[in-house]
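Limitations
The structure tokens in this dataset are predictions for the assembled complex, not deposited experimental models. Users should treat interface geometry with appropriate caution, especially where small molecules or nucleic acid strands are included. An illustrative entry is reproduced here so readers can see what is and is not provided.
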Amino acid sequence: MMKDLLKIKKLPVNRYIDIAVFLALILFPLFVTEFRVDQMCRVLVYIVFALSIDLLWGFTGLMSFGHAVLFGTGGYIVALSYTLIKGLPWHMQGAGYTRIPAVLTPLLSPAIAFVLALAVPGLIAWILGIFIFSSKVKGVFFSLITLALAQIFQTFLDGQQVLLNGSSGLGGLPRSILGSGAIPRMGFYYILLGVVLLVYVFCLWLISSRFGAVLQAIRENEPRLTFLGYRPNRFKTAVYVISGMLAGLAGVLYIPTVRIITPLEVGVTLSTLLLVWVAVGGRGNLTGAIVGTIFVNWAGFLLSEKISDYWLLVLGIVVLLLVFFIPSGLVGKLIEMQYARQHARHKNAALDGEVLS
Amino acid sequence: MSRPILEAKGMYVDFNKFQAIADMNLTVYDGELRVIIGPNGAGKTTLMDLITGKTKPTKGRVIFDGHDITGKSPSEISLKYRIGRKFQGPNLFENMTAYQNIEVALHGYSSIGKTMFFRRTAEIEARVLEILELTGLAHERKVMASSLSHGQRQWLEMGMVIAQDPKLIILDEPTSGMTAEETAKTGRMIQAFAGDHTIIVVEHDMEFVKQISNVVTVMHQGTLLAEGTYAEIEKNPEVLQVYLKSGDGEEVASC
Amino acid sequence: MFLQLLTNGVNYAAVLFLMAIGLVIIMGHMKIVNLAHGELIMVGAYVSYYVSTVLKLPYILAVFGGFFVSGLLGLIIGLIIRRLYGKLAETLLATFAFSLIIQQGVRLIAGPRSQNVNIPLNGTLMLGNMRVPYYNLVIISVALLVLLLTWLLLHKTKIGKQIRAVTENRAMTDCLGINTQRVDMVTFTYGTGLAGLAGAVLAPRSTVTFAMGVQFLTESFLNVVVGGIDSIFGTALSSVLIGESLTFIGGYWNDVIAKVLVFLLIIILIRFKPEGLFTKERR
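Predicted assembly:
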């Protein structure tokens, strides 16, 4: 009896999809043009970003509309570091600087910049978490506040003329990581893919630990959890910090991939689109975040070549249909179908008396 | 009798001028199985809210196991003082499996670090399965809480409370919505737990009360009306007047 | 300087109030956060552009036109998303989808270029050293008028009483035989109509583009966070508070710092008053 109960369970359907997707991603650059490889590099960065919001929204139920703030913070720190390493930028010269101010000298070290690019978003998330979660702010207000944060971050960046070159942003950045020389395109693609895989494995580890179960329990029924001896606020802050650091990491990777960063690119639009990617794929199972990001971004790349920004009109209609007809997303729907089938079989088995509990 | 483990003294709760609880006293002894009955609106659930920290009293004190727990937070009361509670109408993690529901409740891993580096040892798995067996849900371990039958949902939440390994178990209407057969099974379950734990059961079903009870506390209009064995309560004219005669007391007004 | 900033702040408050009031009415009543709110303001602005600048009709028609067009769009949105009642993430996604559709739809119809709307009332009132553009007085009057009319609507009419009843207790009102769907639709239309009206009134002060909506949305949200969703007076008060703070900090320092500081203050504020500054304590 016990042995029967402890039998290793079959993998859920989405883990097979993960394997297939990663295999496809390994083979992808062998069959396409360099331009498409560059586009996929950007998608890989966005996958890291999408996995970070999936932990926060999909698993914990905290729908942040301002996650690009943490992404952008990580990105801007590294972008500023790269810019300063090249020498005093002209927008600072224009403001009367003759040398790099002392406070910015630590950024001349790529390693320090990297650490800061993860730590500062984590710190921002921690401070926000302490204030927002320990108050009685519930559900939608978290979304409202984070959306406002995204807008204010964008305004703030626009205003940083001297340091961050305002709305033009920081450009002309090298395709290098941690102060390395320029990395060839293919090599860079596989480095990114490696990072995506690591982040995915980390997320998988996290959600299959009991920590992950507590996060889901927060999403499902937060008040109940307090009667089981947990302090949900601490968990929410913790996952916000972890998610924020991953978003920061995505921002770091964005710099050598796109090689320019502007306030518009890390503003409200990115924050909201991020949620759309994850919603389309299905939230709360990691796979959906990956699949949705690939799907929506490629639809965007290919459609906007034909109909420019009107593809957003198509996206709007697709999201609307999705919400009404496949609210759990593409992968979410598959998981539900698998569960329904297993559940039906399980019920029949119980009725037939094959398995006695 | 053994020592008192729970003492609620002179409890008052006001909700916007409405007195939900007025001068309520309750003493429960270590190892006891106590049943609390009373018509709807008698304040039974509110009293449980006071004990578990969901509601703060306007006046009065709750002493548990020698500690004053008045006004402490639910998480502290469940973690430090070890009171577990099954809510009225199952209160579960719907889109999680029965196994996960029990595992999250399992005592001893509620800090962030412990949850993160928690590994499913054979010992832990065996404990979860043992609880699932105890509540008749071993076969349903991979079923989402939302797909369980109403009775199974009630049992799952009882299993969660057991997993907390509490000193005091509070069961708020464990048999509501159950068939006669399920109710009987629940009664056996509760009696099985009763050996090792102190239990308070809030109930409506008089047959069920008769099946499981030693001492019955009757509440009415937020205060103590009577206390005694089922046989004594049954004959108490006051109790008959306010409670037993008013039918099952189930009078949920919908339109 | 002080008095000048004070009057500028009143104007800013009026603008904030007009932007947020429709959102607050819908949020308070239906617990729906309408992410397309900014786009409905944008639609109102475009209507005023066509009516006043292209067709050269009187500006008052532009204001009514903005109200009706956005209200009609809002009614359609409301009828569709009503089915998602109570599902937070889904309503947010659906209204975001509407915001994309309206944005790109307007771009398709009106073109991607930005437009300017002539100020219908030029000139400036001089009070000693203080300069108050006449149009500021118009905006302030419209805001007060909207506040008054909304109050009258909610408290002195039959439909208003029904709206408040549904807000208080939806299930109970349903029981009493009030058609909650009709009440919801009236509320949604009125709230989104006010967004259009705001757009029409504010258009002369903004650059009218299909992408202008988002800035209105976030400022309205901050207003909601401070003012709560229970009363239109809460919204009015928080508009004054935020408007004056932004104007004063902006006047003595700069606009960007003003926004960042006010945002930080709001974050600290909600730590202690999560339901908004002007909401009564509830159990």
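Some entries come with short summary sentences. For this one: The mean pLDDT of chain A is 91.
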